[in-house]
Amino acid sequence: TEQLVEVQDLKKYFPIKKDLSVKSVDNISFTVKKGETFGLVGESGSGKSTLGKTLVGLQQPTGGNIIYNGLDVTKFNKEMKRKVNKEMQIIFQDPHASLNPRMRVGDIIAEGLDAYKLLKGKERTNRIYQLLERVGLRPEHAKRYPHEFSGGQRQRIGIARALAVEPKFIVADEPISALDVSIQAQVINLMEDLKKSEGLTYLFIAHDLGMVKHISDRIGVMYLGKMMELSSSNDMFNRPLHPYTQALLSAIPQANPRTAKRDRIVLAGDPPSPTNPPSGCRFRTRCPHAMEICSHQEPQWKEVEHDHWTACHLY
Ligand code: SF4
Ligand code: MG
Predict the structure, then answer these.
(1) At 309, is the pLDDT very low, low, confident or very high (cuts 50, 70, 90)?
(2) Using a 6 Å cutoff on CB, does residue 214 contact ligand 1?
(3) Is the overall model pTM greater than 0.90, yes or no?
(4) Fewer Cβ neighbours under 10 Å: the N or C end of the chain?
């Protein structure tokens, strides 16, 4: 199939007390195509990290289905899930917090190899050396500890760890947000390079659209646990449909202000609490186009143009 990951009505709720839960991922459906980079964008609290973690099996979904390579992972038993999840790895935002400070870099990189009992002894060591070189580090780095490395190098270690088990699908959860701007491009270039050589598919999570514009084939925009819009990167930037996307785009500084056609759309207020989202359309409290219907009827997720999806009563 052309689709690598198919998400159907996915829900991930976190109960906080009786009859109350945070609906971090609330009925989301979309697909990730084989070989693409899918950019997933949203403010903090939009549920994008939870969605990413649920896809790779670090969180159990509350409802819905995750179809990987034609197989419904949500129907699998633990053993089979484990097998599939080996092909789905994650790179975390903060390379400092995600690497155990008491472990040597070589053992960190081999975490997946050890968990799945893939290699031992000399073969394991050689694989660690090979992975270090693959991400631009050196074999002698295997003996050192994470604190001896810069932020960019630590993210390379995180990438090597994800690659160790030869995944097909990688969720990159804001992999460059914590890095110096001068280092960001290097890590992106490495990821692009690995994508080609290892035949990877990425779900690349970011908090702003500008960051994913050039690397994404398609982009999805999340708001308060819902997907608001999904399209090719080009369509998203040229013809955004959803008022939220339009506002996000208007906030991106233009390279050439003389040719800039977009007026800045300033959204009223902060995003509401995900514990108690607005009725109807969740975006309505900040939407410049909100209508009567928006307060009592939730807009449906629909394909408005070819492979251009949105949930808004304007369409
Ligand atoms: Fe705005 Fe209504 Fe569309 Fe929601 S459904 S984005 S409130 S116009
Ligand atoms: Mg996050």
Answers:
(1) very high
(2) no
(3) yes
(4) N
Task: Report the atom number in ligand 1 closest to the C-alpha of 243.
Answer: 6
Residue 25 has pLDDT above 60, yes or no: yes
Q: Please work out whether the CB of residue 287 comes within 6 Å of at least one atom of ligand 1.
A: yes
C-alpha 249 to ligand 1 mean position (Å): 17
Q: Which domains does the chain have, with CATH numbers?
A: 3-87+167-233 (3.40.50.300)
Beta-carbon contacts of residue 6 (< 8 Å; ≥ 6 apart): 31, 32, 65, 66, 67, 68
Q: What is the reported pLDDT for 96?
A: 75
Question: How do residues 111-144 score in pLDDT, each as one tens digit?
Answer: 999 999 999 999 999 999 999 999 999 999 999 9
Closest ligand to Cα 284: 1
